[in-house]
Amino acid sequence: MTIIKLSYLIVVTMIIKGKAHKFGDDVNTDVIYPGKYTYMQLEPKEMAIHAMEDICAEFYKNVSMDDIIVAGKNFGCGSSREQAAACLKYAGISAIIAHSFSRLFFRNAINFGLLAITHPKASDFIQQGNTLEIDYKSGIIRTKGSEFSFSPYPELVQGILEAGGLIPYLKDKLTK
Amino acid sequence: MGSTIAQKILASHSGREKVDVGNIVTVKPDYVLSHDNSAAIIKKYEKLPVDKIFDPLMPVIVLDHTVPASTSQYANNHKSIREFVKYQGIPNFYDMGEGICHQVLSEKGFAFPGSLILGADSHTTTYGAFGAASAGIGRSEVAAIWATGKMWLKVPETIKINIEGQFLKYITSKDLILKIIGDLGADGALYKSVEFTGDTIKEMSIDSRMVLSNMAVEMGAKFGIIYPDEIVDKYLENKAKKHYKWVLPDSDAVYLKELSYNVKDLEPYIAKPHTVDNVSPVVETTGQKIDQVFFGSCTNGRLEDFHAAAELLKGKKIAKNVRMLAFPASRAILQQIILDGTAQILLDADVILMNTGCGPCLGAHEGVLADLEVCISTANRNFKGRLGNPNSLIYLASPYTAVASAITGVITDPREMLS
């Protein structure tokens, strides 16, 4: 086990291992987490049920804990809603590899302790259902005997990820 | 090597002389915006070991998204926000009825040249119309700013777009921005600051400028900044919240790329379902039957837009079997359209005049769509399910195109109204 679950706070350790779920370009926040739920303060379990609802009904049923989304360009475009990152994490997604991310989704993912890795080559190579291994500290994605390297996150971002998100990170910092 | 507007504003707000593209800087924003999502932000804030917020003058909170409350949960959200505002002594709080956050902050003078505004709303880019650097952030980040007064940002590269020429009749800044987004794509300005300049911009009203900055985020932009000028000064006279100076780029500023548009070449454009960059000339979609017109939003619910609607609707009725919902973007706009007779023209035409606020734009209330229905909207997003139903279709267009379509009952090129 490489990820320790603490009441929906996923603390990322060295290596993530999961199955790939492939998506295309411009997957927007409205299909990831529809606006009609955005101002309801739903519990994590309910949020997970709505993940990807408008493009992939019952997505959560096909996700095993630690699975990985692999997508095209501009993943998470649209709204600033943080629940787009949160619902995926609650559904069991541990990381997203994409050609590119919308800047808001990227920030929200990190701030929610969800790995977001920009890697067009890996994204093209990986197929639906492939098993992946991400060593995020060394910056390596392994799948089917191939390796793809990426620049590890800067120290600040690693700190936020390791704490499980911005709020726990800041809580720790302000307490010290 | 000179600096762009984004570099200068990020330097001034991070206490540095100069910043370079790619630098990560810790900034102190002038204001941090949140709306109905403040209820969720408060819950995050309360997890932090901090009682009073860092600077009560920094948050600006506007209730606009789910107003008036259609569920007890929304009502409870609003109540918790009011209680927090009172406890924290936050003076800049605007309860429901004042308007859409981006319109309210503009009208009250929170956005001014050189200012930095961060907000838990993607259309926070709107304040670029006043020469501000403004960008959306997440809810956790707003909670963090409430607690610490600061946030990190990366200094973006800049794309400069030069706009020349005169608009033809019934062609607006909405057609221009749809054309640009269609050309560049939904990620065409990803992570970038966009600077809009040129002779056309110099003569453009604030209402029209806000459309460009507002929708810059639909091509992925971090900022959508328009060069400040006398028109901005006039708008902000006696209302700017702080003393300001224009921030303009250096003549030797470095741009990622520079683009040019001449608006005399434009025709009415429309974004077809289900993406904002799926843009074509309106003429390619004319005849498509519509069920609803959503007129309003932080993109096109302003006075100028209501005047455009009245111009086409005067003495006419909207088509049978079409419902047109019109949401003034602020109380000030609602008062003005009542005073100047615009509201009467709309009512005579059978338009449903709604309350100020975001309306159905978030898909939660006030005009969601039925299965297989088609809506033409003056707002900024046509994503699947955006108006509350994934089995409906949304087209985005200018106020002129939307209203011409309301009159005929099918998507219509507004230039047909000239005859």
Could you walk me through the main structural features you see in this protein, from its secondary elements to its overall organization?
The complex is a heterodimer of chains A (176) and B (419). Chain A has 176 residues and is an alpha/beta fold. Helices cover 33% and strands 23% of the residues of chain A. Chain A has a single domain, classed as Aconitase, domain 4 (Alpha-Beta Barrel), CATH 3.20.19.10. Chain A contains eight helices and nine strands. In chain A, strands 6-5-4-3-7-8-9 form a seven-stranded mixed sheet. By secondary structure, chain B is of the alpha/beta class. In chain B, 30% of the residues lie in helices and 17% in strands. Chain B has helices spanning 5-12, 38-45, 72-88, 101-107, 139-148, 173-184, 199-202, 206-216, 230-236, 297-300, 303-313, 331-339, 342-348, 399-408, and strands at 24-27, 31-34, 59-62, 93-94, 116-119, 133-136, 151-154, 158-164, 193-197, 223-226, 257-262, 269-271, 279-281, 292-295, 323-326, 352-353, 374-377, 393-396. In chain B, the strands form five sheets. In chain B, strands 4-3-2-5-6 form a five-stranded parallel sheet, sandwiched between helices. A five-stranded parallel sheet of chain B has the order 16-15-14-17-18, covered by helices on one side. At the A-B interface, helix 1, helix 5 and helix 8 of A face helix 2, helix 3 and helix 5 of B.
Number of domains of chain A: 1
Cα-to-Cα separation, first versus last residue of chain A? 30 Å
The largest interface is: A-B, 42 and 53 residues
Which superfamily, in CATH terms, is the homologous superfamily of the largest domain in chain B? Aconitase, domain 3
Characterize the main sheet of chain A: 7 strands, mixed
The coarse silhouette of chain B is globular
Total helical elements of chain B: 14
Percent strand of chain B equals 15-25%
Oligomer: heterodimer
At the first level of CATH, what is the class of the largest domain in chain B?
Alpha Beta
Number of discrete helical segments of chain A: 8
Number of strands of chain B: 18
- Strand-pairing-aware structural class of chain B: alpha/beta
Uncertain ranges of chain B: none
